[in-house]
């Protein structure tokens, strides 16, 4: 039985439900961020990110910095682009668009290649764009939580290497790391940014990332200084390298309690083969999507191959409002999220299915949520045609 206070199941696209042991790690007594015990924990945590991202290349560089997932965009923009350089942003919704805004803030020139609502840019379109202009980086949101669309990273990298091999491929993996496969070395990725509060299953407050040796060389060879102080690789890289080598180092204060929680979450994830974890998320996702279809509802991500295992964005039936259905779900102990994509925001809800709600066999979160959805829609007057 959980030791947590009774509460509704949080089934939004993040934050998600957390395991007891992870939360208990947060209650660690206060300790020095440069003391030997914490240095050992932080160094171990950085090392655990390597198998999570599936990289064994010693040139790959992990970062864990206090901040939100959004800080990852700043790390990319401030360090891997310079003012006036072109970036190709593959957008499948709100978060792809926001990544473009961040790049522009730092002086880069983003070009957005957008899929239709519920779809994604196709490889021929990407190859055409790359052949028409030299891009410093290509960014892709692996799972955009505004639509539930998942992008095919492997095919995207293959297209970039074919047409523009020097272009860096950067992935926003905030809603994909630890539930969708990311083979950093095998797929030849240059950067993946993420956060702990989604499939990793640790409270929010950290920016987690991995960058390739090629990306770090691009940073070293930039013509101008990094465009940020706090988000500077120049300031953070020696800190991360020292900590991973179990040596105390200081630039800005980390959160020891969050790092302890992340350490626990990563050990739980890596105790089993990642392939099993990815498969379990897919199985539960398929179950959710079948149940949604059986209710006569449509999914925002239109094609099966475009549908994420992390979450499902569900169009509401005509006549059913978000403001009516979400409180009914909450009264049954289930929290879903409203819409986010600006073109369809009032028309759909979002169901996150990640982490312990999926992997812990003792939990009934998913089954309860599907039953609550069926009952709540009926109470709103919906009957399947």
Notable characteristics:
385 residues, pyridoxal phosphate, three-stranded antiparallel beta sheet, transferase, Aspartate Aminotransferase, domain 1, seven-stranded mixed beta sheet, globular, 13 helices, Aspartate Aminotransferase, domain 2, 2 domains
Short description:
The chain is of the alpha/beta class. The chain has helices spanning 20-25, 36-53, 70-80, 94-105, 123-132, 153-163, 213-220, 233-244, 256-270, 274-294, 322-331, 356-359, 365-379, and strands spanning 9-10, 61-66, 86-91, 109-114, 137-141, 143-144, 149-150, 168-172, 191-194, 206-211, 311-315, 334-335, 337-338, 348-352. It comes from Hypocrea atroviridis (strain ATCC 20476 / IMI 206040).
Q: What is the H/E order?
A: EHHEHEHEHEEEHEEEHHHHEHEEEHH
Name the CATH superfamily assignment of the largest domain.
Type I PLP-dependent aspartate aminotransferase-like (Major domain)
Residues in β-strands, percent: 15-25%
Please tally the β strands and state the result. 14
Indicate the percent of residues in helices.
Answer: 25-40%
Low-confidence stretches: none
Bulk shape: globular
Task: Provide the spatial order of strands within the biggest beta sheet.
Answer: 2-10-9-8-5-3-4
Q: Supply the helix-strand structural class.
A: alpha/beta
Could you name the CATH class of the largest domain?
Alpha Beta
How many strands, what sense, and barrel or not for the largest sheet? 7 strands, mixed
Q: What average pLDDT do the residues reach?
A: 97
What's the architecture of the largest domain in CATH terms?
3-Layer(aba) Sandwich
User: What is the distance, rounded to the nearest whole angstrom, between the alpha carbons of the first and last residues?
Assistant: 41 Å
């Amino acid at each position: 039985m959980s030791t947590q206070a009774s509460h509704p199941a949080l089934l939004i696209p993040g934050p998600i439900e957390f395991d007891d042991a992870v939360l208990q790690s947060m209650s660690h007594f206060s300790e020095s961020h440069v003391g030997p015990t914490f240095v050992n924990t932080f160094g171990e945590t950085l090392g655990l990110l390597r198998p999570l991202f599936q990289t064994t290349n010693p040139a790959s560089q992990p970062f864990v910095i206090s901040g939100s997932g959004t800080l990852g965009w700043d790390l990319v923009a401030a360090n891997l682009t310079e003012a006036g350089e072109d970036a190709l942003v593959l957008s499948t919704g709100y978060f792809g668009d926001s990544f473009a805004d961040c790049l522009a803030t730092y002086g880069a020139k983003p070009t957005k290649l957008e899929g239709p609502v519920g779809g994604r840019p196709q490889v021929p379109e990407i190859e055409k764009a790359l052949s028409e202009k030299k891009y410093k980086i290509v960014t892709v949101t692996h799972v955009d939580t505004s639509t539930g669309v998942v992008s095919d990273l492997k095919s995207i990298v293959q297209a970039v290497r074919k047409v523009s091999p020097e272009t860096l491929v950067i992935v926003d993996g905030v809603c994909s790391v630890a539930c969708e496969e990311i083979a950093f070395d095998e797929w030849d990725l240059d950067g993946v940014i993420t956060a702990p509060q989604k499939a990793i299953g640790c409270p929010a407050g950290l920016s987690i990332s991995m960058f390739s040796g090629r990306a770090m060389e691009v940073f070293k060879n930039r013509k101008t200084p990094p465009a940020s102080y706090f988000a500077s690789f120049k300031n953070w890289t020696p800190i991360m390298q020292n900590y991973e080598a179990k040596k105390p180092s200081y630039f800005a204060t980390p959160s020891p309690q969050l790092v302890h929680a992340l350490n626990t979450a990563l050990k739980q994830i890596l105790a089993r083969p990642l392939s099993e974890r990815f498969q379990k998320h897919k199985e539960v996702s398929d179950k959710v999507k079948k149940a949604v279809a059986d209710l006569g509802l449509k999914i925002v991500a239109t094609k099966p191959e475009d549908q994420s295992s992390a979450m499902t964005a569900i169009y509401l039936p005509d006549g059913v409002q978000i403001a009516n259905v979400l409180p009914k779900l909450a009264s049954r102990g289930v929290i879903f999220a409203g819409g986010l994509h600006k073109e369809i925001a009032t028309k759909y809800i979002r169901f996150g299915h990640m982490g312990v709600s999926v992997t812990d066999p003792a939990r009934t979160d998913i089954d309860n949520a599907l039953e609550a959805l069926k009952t709540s829609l009926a109470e709103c007057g919906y009957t399947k045609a």
